[in-house]
Amino acid sequence: xxxxxxxxxxxxxxxxxxxxxxxxxxxxxxxxxxxxxxxxxxxxxxxxxxxxxxxxxxxxxxxxxxxxxxxxxxxxxxxxxxxxxxxxxxxxxxxxxxxxxxxxxxxxxxxxxxxxxxxxxxxxxxxxxxxxxxxxxxxxxxxxxxxxxxxxxxxxxxxxxxxxxxxxxxxxxxxxxxxxxxxxxxxxxxxxxxxxxxxxxxxxxxxx
Length: 208
Ligand SMILES: O=C(CO)[C@@H](O)[C@H](O)[C@H](O)[C@H](O)COP(=O)(O)O
Description:
Elements: H1 13-56, E1 61-65, H2 68-81, E2 92-94, H3 99-108, H4 114-122, E3 128-132, H5 139-151, E4 154-160, H6 164-168, E5 174-178, H7 183-206
Parallel strand pairs: 1-2, 1-3, 3-4, 4-5
The structure holds D-altro-hept-2-ulose 7-phosphate (I22).
D-altro-hept-2-ulose 7-phosphate binds at residues 65-69, 133-135, 138, 141, 183-184.
């Protein structure tokens, strides 16, 4: 019987295997998150301070990514916009929420520019671009970061798998690499990093 997931323990070997593999994944996920957070403390604090300064000056956060990272970018925009205790919400927009716009840009221009073109239209110097990618190599994400830098935005990159081109090309002022080649483990750890950044930036902004 699993302590973590008793509902996953039907009779028989298949059920036992499922429980074991689920528990192994949960343990791997927890260990990775703890390791990442332990190694990135000062970098997270520096990034949160830069984000808080941007928000104090009226800046907006733009989050973007593909697939599961698109879902995570939507969660980022929601969690930064929502007030938490004494910390007010900040302007935050996810660049994958508008299907009409995304499909028009992809169909009429190119999929590689779906984030860059939106940032060209909406971004201002001092805004914050947060790019999420598990490979660090999605071209539309890299083009988005390039555009954000051209505008003079603060660029934040979350990548896995060694950081990929996002790391090689130095496209993020604040880069957080999750050392795993598992897309799912990377996404789980990135979600945690985003929540920590929101909390630290909120505290920094509130001066607590
Ligand atoms: O999330 C999953 C699988 O869980 C996929 O949808 C995954 O996000 C997609 O393959 C993305 O296109 C991968 O892009 P990236 O993370 O390498 O930038």
